Amino acid sequence: MQKLNREGFLSGILGTGDVFPDFVLPSAEGRLVSLAARLASGPVVLSFFRGEWCPFCRLMLAALTKALPEIEAAGGQLLALTPETGGLPLSMKRYHGATFEVLSDVDFGVGLAAGVVFKIPKLYRERLVASGNNFPQRHGNAAWCLPVPATFIIRPDGVIGWRFVDVDFAHRAEPEDIIAALRTI
To answer: How many angstroms separate the CA atoms of 176 and 11, rounded?
Structure first.
């Protein structure tokens, strides 16, 4: 992760004031979800997750599930994006009892457009394989990439009003910070 910091990775990620690219992605249940359609109903909180295999992602999804009523009361809609495909997004959603949309970022398209995706370094890849993670099966491709923890609040006009990104997969946006930011948009 320090290598990403040294290489200036964060400078390539969309920031406050940038327009977030529109997308259409499959939901955990197989429906197509459009960012533009969601934005027509108000601001969107868009959060990237590595997958259900990641303990920090599970903790964050649990925290967001708990905070969802406050997020919605502040006018936000929550979308969670994971590079996982197949039944994994639905499994993750059911495990947490989540009522928000969990979307499959097929082939990392949205994550790449936002600048949050990185190629997994060889040493880390070897550790992931040794721990039983079959990313080609989980992601439906052999790209061996992951998103960094990132959360964007996208205003109805498509412009990013707030963001949190960190190359350290243990650091995540705090739900209280998301809610506070929503109240200012």
So the answer is: 25
Cβ count within 10 A of residue 34:
12
Q: Which residues contact 158 (CB under 8 A, 6 or more apart)?
A: 19, 20, 22, 35, 36, 39
Q: Please state, in angstroms and rounded to a whole number, the distance separating the CA atoms of residues 95 and 182.
A: 26
Beta bridge partners of 104: 82
CATH number, span 2-20+38-184: 3.40.30.10
- pTM, whole model, 2 decimals? 0.91
Tokens of 118: 């990185």
What tokens appear for 111 in the block? 């994550």
List Cα–Cα distances, 124 to 46, 69, 119, 127, 170, in angstroms.
26, 37, 10, 5, 15
Per-residue pLDDT of the chain (185 residues; tens, 9 = 90+): 455 554 566 778 999 999 999 999 999 999 999 999 999 999 999 999 988 878 888 899 999 999 999 999 999 999 999 999 988 888 889 988 889 999 999 899 999 999 999 998 888 889 888 988 888 788 788 888 999 999 999 999 999 999 999 988 889 999 999 999 999 98
SS3 of 145, please? strand
